[in-house]
Design goal:
With 97 residues, this protein is α+β, with helices and mostly antiparallel strands. It has helices at residues 20-28, 78-84; strands at 4-8, 42-44, 48-50, 53-57, 61-69, 89-96. Helices cover 16% and strands 34% of the residues.
């Protein structure tokens, strides 16, 4: 059965504190795919950029697109994104084949 794991783990696989081996194990699991490997989803004051938010489709789903909504200062939506959260919106378009 197809599934998608989505959420804020507050855990970067390579940087910062926490049990990084846990998120690494999840990302390496053959039952999920990671369409945004290495893409930062937050910038925290004092520690910098991290990847802590995830959308992980099951391996049987086709990823049609993926990204992080991170408007530049001169782009529409920048102010709203800053007010909404320090985390950025992570999105993945999937299709069952």
């Amino acid at each position: 059965m197809p599934f998608v794991l989505a959420g804020d783990a507050n855990l970067d696989p390579d940087r910062g504190e926490g049990r990084r081996e846990a998120i690494r194990a999840l990302l390496a699991d053959e039952r999920v795919q990671d369409p945004l490997a290495g893409v930062d989803t937050v910038v925290w004051e004092g520690v910098g950029a991290r990847r802590v938010d995830y959308v992980l489709p099951s391996a049987g789903l086709r990823v049609a697109g993926a990204g992080v909504v991170w408007p530049a200062p001169d782009e529409a939506g920048h102010a709203a994104a800053l007010v909404a959260s320090r985390h950025r919106l992570v999105w993945v378009d999937v299709a069952a084949d």
